[in-house]
Amino acid sequence: MSASLLRRGLELLEAPGRGKAPPGLRQERAGPRAAGAARRRKAAAEPRRNKATVKGRVVKSAIEEYHKKKAVNHLSENLQYMLKRRLVANKAITEQVLVQNRGRKSKDQPPKKVAKKKPQGTVFTEEDFRKFEREYFGRP
């Protein structure tokens, strides 16, 4: 412990009225250090305001701050806004925007559209079959 802390502790434990000697009986120190020590003692005796606080500052509740900064779900409001709008964008414009936003990687490319093959029908009609039947089998 330093000597100054020890002195302060003893001053706190002393009985009231016995703490300090009258100014006339006090021993004066000579030299440049004495003036600095006297200034420090005088400054320590006076109560100071806390410099860490700001004048007029209000202590905020941590719970209120949490609720203020908590994420808010805007899904229902956004859905209402979107459903109110009946404007439908042009198909060509939407395709162009999608192409611009698509990446160059193969995983970003949409699958190629395969042209559906039409089922091959017969060239012959039902009447052609009947005609062939008559000619081949000889039935009228």
Class computed from helices, strands and strand pairing:
mainly alpha
Helix residue percentage: 40-55%
Strand content: under 5%
Largest sheet: none
Q: Give helix and strand order, one letter per element, not per position.
A: HHHHHH
What is the terminal-to-terminal distance? 133 Å
Count the DSSP helices.
Answer: 6
What's the domain count? 1
In the predicted model, the low-confidence regions spanning at least 5 consecutive residues are: none
Shape: rod-shaped
Average pLDDT reading: 78
Rg value: 49 Å
Record field, number of beta strands: 0
GO molecular function, one term: enzyme binding
Main location: nucleus
Family: Belongs to the AROS family.
Protein name: Active regulator of SIRT1
Structure description:
The longest helix has 14 residues, at 32-45. The model has no long low-confidence stretch (mean pLDDT 78). With 140 residues, the protein is an all-alpha fold. The protein has one domain. The radius of gyration is 49 Å and the shape is rod-shaped. It has six helices and no strands.
